[in-house]
């Protein structure tokens, strides 16, 4: 992918936008871009530099993302809406072509890493509530004030950040080594040429050798003494507007990542803001249990889509005939009575029972959590609560006594919440 039209290869210390930004290290990557930590010499702050592939279709997608991000930043001058802020954008010319670059505020690890770090056991419900509130504030802002549908909401696209002032807590700001993966393996599933990766890593190692030495020594101690994040305001922000759209300007019929996809997308029955609410409910479930809510699979005799619809109905009850046969794709899955064509016997396992039986929730926790989630998972998109209505839900303000929750103790303290790299010096 590091060829004409593809990614731009970056070396530690590379300057961008006339020398304003200096590349520090790679943060992540996706299908269309690589994301680097960079130092902003004008503001003396760290930023995330998203460098798009150069081919025409990627450039077009980047311009669309920049337009959306600009609208988001414009309406949120105080940066309090739980959505990532665009700082700057520009074009960078490299050997592989012209790459649009987005400069974003620097955030921390994704919720996917949080879930993995917690070994898929689920977080304390109190932490789940805090994270849910942030996501809902972000969605309410996007939907109601900006008219934007995110359309790819998933744990990977929600990043943690910390509100602790590093100047007041220099100890915590030494927590960089947390970026090392606990279980190995690639997190983003992106494709990166191995050789270039290795080369870049060697260069990066040389450039920051002295810093890593100190990081390692600080990190171990810091981790040992920071056993709990109790009382710390864990917060997060919605990122990745590469697929965002407006209700009357939709580009794609098939949106969202499979597991977070709403039924109306599978049926092709038209969609609006409420597709994000469906994904939000899937994320909340995953945070609380450590498992994805729906993991459909194709098998002999039926498709992944039909399995997905079956899983939804096993958890949430049968879809009404009107909804089942109402989409452009309905005929592929449902007969005229509104029954699935190839999957006949559904095993109903309602959400509150699932939470008790499989995830060992107390009866009260399960009932309350299911009461919060189920309306968001209404098969009728227009009946789902809006983010604004959801923010009023009493579940968000409940407190579970943490004594009952020692089992699924959150490891959130072991994550990079965004300020970890503050000590890296500008590499010139
Ligand atoms: P894509 O559209 O290619 O998926 P994203 O915007 O999701 O691109 O960014 C890819 C990855 O880069 C994210 O999953 C995350 O790991 C990292 N990343 C993106 N934005 C930031 C940011 N503002 N701060 C820190 N890391 C970021
Ligand atoms: Mg992404």
UniProtKB/TrEMBL annotation:
Keywords, in A-Z order: ATP-binding, Kinase, Nucleotide-binding, Serine/threonine-protein kinase, Transferase
Keyword Nucleotide-binding: yes
InterPro entries: Kinase-like_dom_sf, Prot_kinase_dom, Protein_kinase_ATP_BS, Ser/Thr_kinase_AS, SRPK
Leading EC class: transferase
Reactions catalysed: L-threonyl-[protein] + ATP = O-phospho-L-threonyl-[protein] + ADP + H(+); L-seryl-[protein] + ATP = O-phospho-L-seryl-[protein] + ADP + H(+)
Entry GO MF terms: ATP binding; protein serine/threonine kinase activity
Any Pfam family matching the protein: Pkinase
Domain called Protein kinase: residue spans: 21-396
PANTHER family: OS09G0552300 PROTEIN, PROTEIN KINASE DOMAIN-CONTAINING PROTEIN-RELATED
Protein name, as recorded: non-specific serine/threonine protein kinase
Annotated organism of origin: Rubroshorea leprosula
């Amino acid at each position: 992918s590091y060829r004409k039209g593809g990614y731009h290869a970056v070396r530690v210390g590379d300057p961008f936008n006339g020398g304003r930004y200096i590349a520090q290290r790679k943060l992540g990557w996706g299908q269309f871009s690589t994301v680097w930590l960079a130092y902003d010499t004008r503001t003396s702050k760290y930023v995330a530099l998203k460098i798009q592939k150069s081919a025409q279709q990627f450039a077009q997608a980047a311009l669309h993302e920049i337009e959306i991000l600009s609208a988001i930043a414009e309406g949120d001058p105080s940066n309090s809406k739980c959505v990532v802020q665009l700082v700057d954008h520009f074009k960078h010319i490299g050997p592989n072509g012209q790459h649009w670059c987005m400069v974003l505020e620097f955030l921390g690890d994704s919720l996917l890493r949080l879930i993995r770090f917690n070994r898929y056991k689920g977080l304390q419900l109190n932490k789940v509530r805090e994270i849910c509130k942030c996501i809902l504030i972000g969605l309410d802002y996007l939907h109601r004030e900006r008219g934007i549908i995110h359309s790819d909401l998933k744990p990977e696209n929600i990043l943690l950040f910390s509100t602790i002032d590093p100047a007041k807590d220099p100890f915590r700001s030494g927590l960089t080594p947390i970026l090392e993966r606990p279980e190995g393996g690639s997190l983003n599933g992106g494709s990166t040429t191995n050789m270039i990766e290795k080369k870049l890593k060697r260069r990066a190692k040389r450039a920051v050798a002295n810093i890593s030495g100190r990081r390692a020594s600080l990190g171990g101690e810091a981790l040992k003494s920071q056993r709990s994040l109790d009382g710390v305001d864990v917060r997060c922000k919605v990122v990745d507007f590469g697929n965002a759209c407006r209700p009357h300007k939709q580009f794609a019929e098939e949106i969202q990542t499979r597991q977070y996809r709403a039924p109306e997308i599978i049926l092709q029955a038209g969609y609006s803001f409420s597709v994000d609410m469906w994904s939000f409910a899937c994320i909340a479930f995953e945070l609380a249990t450590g498992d994805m809510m729906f993991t459909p699979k194709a098998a002999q005799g039926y498709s992944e889509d039909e399995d997905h619809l079956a899983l939804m109905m096993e958890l949430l009850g049968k879809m009404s005939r009107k909804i089942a046969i109402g989409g452009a794709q309905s005929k592929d899955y449902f007969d005229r009575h509104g029954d699935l064509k190839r999957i006949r016997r559904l095993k109903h396992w309602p959400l509150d029972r699932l939470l008790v039986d499989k995830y060992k929730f107390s009866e009260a926790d399960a009932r309350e959590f299911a009461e919060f989630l189920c309306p968001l998972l209404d098969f009728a998109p227009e009946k789902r609560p809006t983010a604004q209505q959801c923010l009023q839900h009493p579940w968000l303000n409940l407190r579970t006594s943490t004594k009952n929750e020692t089992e699924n103790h959150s490891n959130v303290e072991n994550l990079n919440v965004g300020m970890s790299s503050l000590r890296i010096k500008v590499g010139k």
